[in-house]
């Protein structure tokens, strides 16, 4: 099976492209720790017009869908308290918001967080939200299938550009919890 790097002609270490990343993403890469060296996190420049997963996959090939992961932010509510959490699932699946996420957050109700809240609180652009560099108070829920991929294509914090990250590195991000069943088909 091809890897995400095969879809792009210009793949570079992300640490060589910090000026192209959203500030919180660049800061997280500067402070990178874990068993996977930061040099294995790659950056590819992509056209913002094809940043959405479906359009990107249509442009580069359906095989890329199974190696792309989407990061969505969910708001869990209980007793007047709202908790934001980021969820990372493979792009051909959906986040189980009302099941796995709600239970993990101990929330009575869960729904996708408002775009303006996500963008404002994360410092990232809509369409480019990534699990790298998220606010420290946000739990990061990662579907086990993402961790099992050799490489996952994820957002870079902006609509321009993507990151290619070894799946196992995503399990080591700050505040990450790996869950079986976070995603549904």
Automatic annotation (TrEMBL):
Pfam families to which the protein is assigned, alphabetical: tRNA_edit
YbaK/aminoacyl-tRNA synthetase-associated domain boundaries: 52-172
Domain of life: Bacteria
MF term (GO), any: aminoacyl-tRNA deacylase activity
Gene3D superfamilies: YbaK/aminoacyl-tRNA synthetase-associated domain (3.90.960.10)
Name the record gives this protein: YbaK/aminoacyl-tRNA synthetase-associated domain-containing protein
Originating species: Streptomyces benahoarensis
